[in-house]
Amino acid sequence: MTPRHSADYKSMLWALAMPIVALAQYLRPGLIPVLCPVSCYLALCAGVMAHNHNHCPTFASRRMNGFWGHWLSLFYGYPTFAWIPTHNMNHHKFVNRAGDATITWRHNNNHGFLTAFTYFFVSSYWQSEPIKDFIRKAKTHNRKLYRNILFQYGLWGSAAVATLALGIGLHGFPKGLGVWFAATGGPAIFALWTIMLFNYEQHVHADPWSEHSHSRSWQGWMTNFLLFNNGYHAAHHENPGTHWSKLPQAHAAIVGQIDPRLVENGFAWYFVKCYLLAPIFPRFRTHQVGRAPFETQQGQPIDLTTADVALAQAGETAAMV
Question: How far apart are the C-alpha atoms of 137 and 252, rounded to whole Å?
Fold first, then answer.
C-alpha cells in the first residue's frame, strides 16, 4: 500500500474520502446540498489522479496499480484505461495539431462560452475512435490487457447499477434516483465534462508548434493544491513521465520561455475574464499565440481530412501498454 512518492498519500486520502462522502448522502439525503459539491470535486480529482497514474504509476506493485485504476474508475465517469489511447498515446503525440482527437479547433478557432460549453460533446465523439481502436488491438494482440479492459467496464457498470439500486432501495422511487444522481451520477458527469473543459482551456489559442508555448498554465497555489498540480500543463507536456509533485520545479525551469499570455494565476479569475468580461470588454479576450494550429509552416490551412487519417493511423504507430 506504500506509494512510490510520499506526495501520493494525499491522493490516497482523497480517494478514501470519495466513498465516505457519497455514502453519507445515501444515508442522510439532507446532507446533499452540502456534500454534492464535494462529491463533484472528488470525482474530478479521480479523473486528475487517473491522468497522473497513467503517466507515472502510483505504486511499485503492478497489482496495486491495477487496483488503483479500478478504484478510480468507480468515482470517475468512465473506466480509467481510456486515458491511455486518448491522452497518453494521442493527445501527447499531436498536442492540438491535426490528428489530436481532443483538438480545440475542429470547427473554428473562436474562444467563447458556447464553444467551451459544447466542447465536451464534440471531443467525446472524436475520442471514441481511438478508444475503440485500442480495444480492438488489445483483443487481437494483448489478451491480458483486453481482459483488464472488460473487467474495468464491468466493475464501472456494476457499481453504477449497485449504487442506483442502493438509492432506490433506501428511499424509493423517484427520490432514490435523485439521491443517486446527487451522490454518484451527477458528480461523474461533472468530472467528465470538466476534465474535457480543462483540456480545452489548456490549449485554446496556444501555439502547438512552439517549443514551450504549446499549452496554457496556471501557477496559482490554490489551483494546484486542489488539482494535484494540474495547472502546470506546459511543464507536464514537456515532462510527461514526471510525478505530479515535481511539476512546480519543472514549470519554474521553463516559465521564462513561455509566452506570458499563456501563464495565468488562478482558474477563477481566468474564467471570469474569458466568459463574463470578454463579451463586454474585448481586451479580456484571449488571442492566438504564435501560429494557429490549423496552419502549415507556409501559412496554408490544413485539410481536416488529413487529421482524420492521422487519427485513424495513430494507434498503428503507438505501442500497446
Answer: 39
Dig out the grid coordinates for 169 from the structure.
Answer: 432501495
Global pTM reads 0.91
Q: Cell 460533446 sits at which residue?
A: 121
Q: Which of 120, 255, 262, 272 is nearest to 204 (CA)?
A: 262
Phi, psi of 213 (to 5 degrees): -100, 35
The pLDDT > 70 percentage for the chain reads 92
For residues 110-136, one letter each, b for 16 or more C-beta atoms within 10 angstroms of the residue's C-beta and e for the rest, the string is: ebeeebbeebbebbbebbebbbebbbe
Q: Which tens digits make up the pLDDT trace of 188-243?
A: 999 999 999 999 999 999 999 999 999 999 999 999 999 999 999 999 999 999 99
Secondary element (H or E) of residue 33 = helix 32-55
Closest by Cα among 93, 83, 81 to 311: 93
